[in-house]
Amino acid sequence: MGPIGLQHYLVLGAILFVLGVIGIVSRKNAVGILISIELMLNAANINLIAFSRYSNKPIFPTTMPEAAYMDGQVFAIFVIILAACEAAVALAIILNLFNMFGTIEVDDADTMRG
Amino acid sequence: MGHYQPLLPDLILAMGATFILLLGPLRDSQNLRDFLRWISLGLVAATAATLVWVNHGMATPYPLVGEGWLTTAPLHTAFAVVFLATIAWTILASTVPDEDAGEWYSMLLFLGTGMIILARAANLAAVFLGLEVLSISLYILIAFRYSKRSSLRGGIMYLLLAGFASGFLLFGMALIYAVFGTLQIAEIRTLALATDMGPMAKVGFGLLLVGVGFKLAAVPFHMWTPEVYESSPGTVTGLIASSSKGAMLAAFIPFLFLLETHWSIIWLFAALSMVGGNLLGLREIRVKRILAYSSIAHIGYVLTGYLAGDTLSANAAFLPSITGVNAVFFYVVAYAASILGAFAALGYIQGERDLTLRDLRGVGRRNPVLAFCLLIFVWSLAGLPPAVGFFGKIYLFSAAINAGYFWLPLIGLLGSAIGIYYYLRIIVHLFMMPADASDPKVHASTLQEWVMLGSAVAVIALGLFPETIFSFLRAF
Amino acid sequence: MTLLLSLLLIPLLGTALVGLSGWVDRNFARVATLIIMIVDLAVAIILMARTSGGPVQVIHPWIPSFGVSFNLYVDGLSALLILLTTFIGVIAVIISWNEIKEKVTSFHIWMLLLQTGILIVFMARDMMLFYFGWELMLVPMFFLIGVWGHEEKLYSAIKFFLFTFTGSIFMLLALLYVYFQHAAQTGVLTFDLTQLLQTELSATAQTWVFLGLFVGFAVKVPIFPLHTWLPDAHTQAPTAGSLILAGLLLKTGVYGIMRITIPMAPAAAVYFTPWIIGLALIGIFYGALAAYPQRDFKRLVAYSSIAHLGFVILGVFVGNAAGYQGAVLQMVNHGLATGALFLIGGMLQQRTHTRLFEMFGGLWRQMPVLGGFLLFFCFASLGIPGTGNFIGELYVMGGAFTYHPLVGALTVFGILFAAAYSLRIFLATMHGPETTAFKNLPDASPRETLALGTLVAALVAIGFFPNLVTGPLYYPPDLSVPQSGRATTPAMVMPVETGTPSPVLAPTSPPLHTYLLPMNSNQLSDQRFDIASLSPDQQEVR
């Protein structure tokens, strides 16, 4: 196995991503789907940060090397913020849905799923 | 300030939107609503002016400004100005819920912010930022009438599917970052063209395309379209169909190099959308859904132009002046002008529950101005002269033929011949069917009627003088 | 040249005038439209006289980046069809005076728009402008049929639209292909037909270009397997709509074949000629056979149109001067005679609210004037001497005999069939036991008499002075035939008589027999397609 390296993060990211996809396809609960989406986004975040950390030199030389290996981490922060916004809006809508329908099951299977 | 100066338009718009959001709670008066409308309009105009001013004299291809965040390329600036125009149009044309004028205008401005960031993004992170700002504002706008069931359903559906798509998009971006070590699109382009793409890069771009396909509602990923279009307020539907997709297209013009490796996927998207969208619309009787299916077909047409791409770099170039990119720009303008008006007009007409073709009967007699405008818009969507959609379609297919494609234009034209049928049905129900006993209810203020009439005239004028749009593009 | 522009702008800007006057009073809309149409006709007459000095052209830049210019070009053939268009436009307004009672203003606005589209088609030298006009004709006609038509108007209107639109797609693709080929060969972006005709096309390319263009136009003509929209549209349209459909819209298809299809792909045209002549013959017989048993007045006339247009296509493709002249003559005559039959059908329907033959019978006693007109137009339709149709059919027959005796012989049978259905129209309405259903039907009003009378006069004039129609074809040197490097095109071989241009509308025409001479002389056989004169790659098609 060896020490924890880039591959481990990659695999973790891939597993989380696939779990997220499976979650979205199989769940009916709106909050469950929201969580699955967050899982997908965070899988990507893990990848971004891992690449940024482990390749402290870009694989290809670029014009802005010093910025390049911070890019991933900055991007990850963006993603976290945006995901939080999205969750806030989503929860607001879901709350209203619950008020109106008394349930947050997303039942219309054909149109609701990807 | 220095090289952050080019971010000024985005800052003005976003801060203005926040300001208007704060004014929102001072609700309850008609005057305030009008005041907010004109302020928002002023903000949009100021943003557009700044955009033009800031970019003046910086027109080199894809220069990176603000730490490589946005591009000032003329095409992208022109796109951004067009999207701002659609926002301004919507501010004028939309019927605002009495209570929440501040929130409504504020969200429209945030939507605009997302669009101009997305349209000018030079960096994967900026693409994501712009896209999410745009999407989040759209979730709120779609679900804005939260006391209506359908509105909430549409909102949550769009939210979950757009989130899903964002997941794909972001994971693809992460893989691309891993391979190329940079988020700058221009650099990725150079590297991707210089080397053979490994499997990881291909998967990354593939995931990216899936995400884009969802957002654009190209055919294998189109299922959300009818439901969401149906349940949104009319003007918002127009924005989803026109400028929010247009911004996505603008953002992906720098990715034209993908045609080297992924063109068959895009080809398939285009062909399936053109056929599928038009076929699906045939049996539908709910008007907004018909136009939703038609918008799927239109994305197919646009992708045809996208495939033709920047003919200077792509295959078999006969002529420099008809590039796919120019044609896409033309079409985005033409389509926005037509579809915004069409959905807004439908928004003014009240149906029983969902607006069906039956509800259109008698509108021609009851409100001839609105019916006439709707006729012009549908005429343009069908791609018939003298409306602007005619030349839009001809440019796209010309660009495709110019780039050496033959089957795609043929499929597209045959598809549009199929699609003519549902456009004709709309016209037939508007003008040629006797009205039912109950008169259709049409709610449109005088201002709204003038706005509609103005854009109908614009659709015709642009159709008679299509060169105007290219002159506009060249002005940047 | 302002003449050409004003010809277009009068009906186009007239829509605004009609809209305003209709807002004041619906009758004003009628009057305004009539005035506009008459002014347009006057301009067309001036134009006709002007073109006798040579073709008239006007070019304005329109979309420079796409190579599209506002390029209008009128020579004898165009001027002739423009005259026909404006003439029929006037008649159409007169004839709908009492028939159209609902939405009067919008009816006339659509009529004017339709006229603009047709005029663009006949005048455009720029192919994008041509296509623009071609598509512009669709929506007004759709509205004319769909709003003011009869029982199955919606079905017919949609069918008409879908057929024509689908056909035009292939036309567009072919035009774009030639455009890009031309641009690739010369580096010049242009849709100018004169320049596009210089494009070198390989044999395969010619075949596809020909097929694309041909299908686009053949739907409109209509040529046999693509004709099914026609009976529905003609039957269901209001009278003015039927008149314009039969008189003008069908001609745009023929005009496109003569002006664009054949010159663009001459070798392919030669290759396909036997097939198309076959289709034309099928059209003649199918149209006649299908027409005879119809129960519906207008439907019978509609099917007869298919037969008449079969003659026209035959004349175009036999590839000699007689055929070409005959085709043009028949285009004009068919527009007048069949249009008139539709008018009478409309008048009968307006009086009796039916178009079925079994409801008619013995109407002569009640309406002798209308009956007389019907008799004349039925005779014109079957081509008796003295009417233009006789000359036209004679020319086409002569051309067909020159092409192949068998084809000529079959054409004779076609004319016999025409006699059968034409006489049936008259016998079933005016003769026979008097129907008891209708009493005291009014005879032709002065307005109707005026409209029908002008048509009679025109047909007789052409019958005695065919030079009125064929003369204009000679004098302008046709730009569509490049001077060198290309095969002579079938449609363009007409200048057999090389004479000085004869001034139009001044019937100093030579005695009739000189027009019949070419049929018997050996001159025409030389004008047959000479394969040896084709360039090698064009020969491969054969």
Helix and strand sequence of chain C: HHEEHHHHHHHHHHHHHHHHHHHH
Ends distance of chain C: 43 Å
Beta-strand content of chain B = under 5%
* Portion in strands of chain C: under 5%
Question: So what's the oligomer here?
Answer: heterotrimer
Mean pLDDT of chain B: 84
Instruction: State the shape of chain C.
Output: globular
Compute the gyration radius of chain C: what is it?
A: 22 Å
Description:
The complex is a heterotrimer of chains A (114), B (476) and C (542). Chain A has 114 residues and is an all-alpha fold. Chain A has four helices and no strands. Chain A is elongated. The N and C termini of chain A lie far apart (37 Å). Mean pLDDT of chain A is 79; it is low at 109-114. With 476 residues, chain B is mainly alpha-helical. Chain B has one domain. Chain B is built from 20 helices and four strands. In chain B, a hairpin with a 4-residue loop joins β1 and β2 (70-71). In chain B, α13 packs antiparallel against α17 (388-402). In chain C, α3 (76-95) packs antiparallel against α11 (239-264), α14 (321-352) packs antiparallel against α15 (368-382) and α15 (368-382) packs antiparallel against α17. In chain C, strands 1-2 form a two-stranded antiparallel ribbon. Chain C contains 22 helices and two strands. Chain C has a domain at 265-475 and 486-499 and 514-530. Chain C is an all-alpha fold and 542 residues long. Chains A and B meet through α1, α2, α3 and α4 of A and α5 and α6 of B.
